[in-house]
Amino acid sequence: MALLPSSRRWSLTHRAEGGWGWLLAAGAIALLVALPVIALAYAALGGTESLAHWLHLARFVLPDAALNTLALLAGVGVVVTLLGTGSAWLVTAFDFPSKRVLTWALLLPLAVPTYIVAFAYLDLLHPIGPIQTALRAVLGYDSPRQFRLPDLRALPGAIFVLGVVLYPYVYLSTRMMFMTQAANLLEAARTLGHGRFGVFFRVMLPLARPAVAVGVSLALLETLNDIGASEFLGVQTLTVSVYTTWVTRSDLAGAAQIALSMLIIVVALILFERHGRRRQRYANTQRMRPMQPRRLRGAAAFGAIVLGWIPVVLGFVAPAVYLMVETGKRLHLVGGVSAQLLASTRNTLTLALVATVVTLIAGLIVAWAGRQLRESARAQPGRLMARVASLGYALPGTVLAIGLLAPLTLFDRALAATFGTTGLFLMGSSLALVIAYTMRFLAISTGAIEAGLARIPASLEQASRLLGEPPGRTLWRVHLPLLRPALATGALLVFVDAMKELPATLLLRPMNFDTLATWLYAEAARGTYEEGAVAALIIVLAGLLPVVLLARTQLKIGR
């Protein structure tokens, strides 16, 4: 410290002195996020009946559910790798008509939750639905008994639905990697005798392996979190088993044990992502010349257009057109929507708004604590707090909800014992959903705010501190005005994700309380698709907002 200039030495000391409060606040948030995991482990491993539960699950539930889950993860992993990597290479290495539109259109399936696509395809591919009816008319058949496609309600159908929705995770990360590769690498490989396929498989694909691993891991985590699509399509996964064990049999210990088994898969996926990036270090000390796309003409251009647009049509266009048509029918025949659907819309918007505000405040505390401690002796604890606080995003919604049941119940009991009240304060209200949404999406707000803070030079903060401003006022008067774009981005992402969240909402919602997601789930379970389409279309329209923002970023980078 003695070797540093006096102003620099004062700044570090003052930063460390002012960082204790922020560290404690961030630590409290991290502890709250970790609490469901601790409670889950206690409920799954504690108690005299734990062994009997485990034996029952190991014999009757876990084998089939785990096998279905692993098969679903493997199938979705293959589909998203092929579609995401292939699409990224197509729009990066080649130039053809409609490529500029296709570059951002390939992101559109991110706007549609998996359960909505399953909801749409169940009706579209029904034996008397529009697609099979048109096929029979073309082939000359009169009834489904003469010709029908394989039933979508099976494992292959779930793999198809989840794959065409989740491939953008791989496309996004892999395309960024392809765009940053220098053209001289390709030219060197071509001079050594490799053709275009050889260059792709032996040079570009190995370099993009870390990005592929990241994208596949995110897609598989979303697959593990899915409950609506899997249940609609008749696939008994671990996530569906958690829900049915708690809701149908009211067996919290059994649900906790299945959820703990899911955590093992989550950890395995995270380790897979880390393994894919192990010892991957690339550096380019020369001025990089980006790869120039090859212009396609004639049949080659037509083939590229068809191949490029197939994922967009399957993952977004077909479900979106279906929802618009069904919504138009509903509004035309009935002249409006039901009061229950309007109430679900209000509930969804209110919950998402409150959860967004709370999540942004918590993310700001965690990110600012890390900023204050980044150069002090407590920098490592600060980074640890940020990682623990971001744990919720890796947890499937069912796991998080089951882990929250016991802490929320204990809080309600303690509150009743202290004030002599009756009833449930958290479990009986939508506050439980706000808490779950905050824990689930805290990583999004923290990441957006940390990215915004990284762009603010430390000199502004040092000048404010030298003028005698404490950390809180420095944040309020200096950083918050500069963080408005990052805060807006984080708020948009959290708001839309909260609107779409289904698993945690199903498990924690109060009685007679519906959101758009649970309303759609109930409509699909009853087989009434008309009004469910209206709810689904509202969710899709909201989901388009972050996709448009992401597409604008992609277009700027691609220029």
How is the topology of this model organized?
Layout lengths: L5 H40 L4 H44 E2 L3 H7 L8 H11 L5 H10 L15 H12 L1 H12 L3 H9 L4 H30 L2 H5 L5 H10 L4 H25 L17 E2 L2 H37 L4 H35 L5 H11 L7 H23 L11 H24 L3 H9 L4 H12 L1 H17 L2 H6 L7 H11 L2 H30 L1
Parallel strand pairs: 1-2
Helix pairs in contact: 1-12, 1-14, 1-15, 1-16, 2-6, 2-7, 2-9, 2-12, 2-13, 3-23, 4-6, 4-13, 4-23, 6-13, 7-9, 8-9, 9-12, 11-12, 12-16, 13-23, 14-15, 14-17, 14-20, 16-17, 17-20, 18-19, 20-23, 22-23
Task: Give a verbal description of the structure.
The protein is mainly α and 559 residues long. The protein has 23 helices and two strands.
How many runs of DSSP E, i.e. beta strands?
2
Helix segment tally = 23
Give the percentage of residues in beta strands: under 5%
Distance between the termini: 45 Å
Chain-averaged pLDDT: 82
**Approximate helicity band:** over 70%
Class inferred from helices and paired strands: mainly alpha
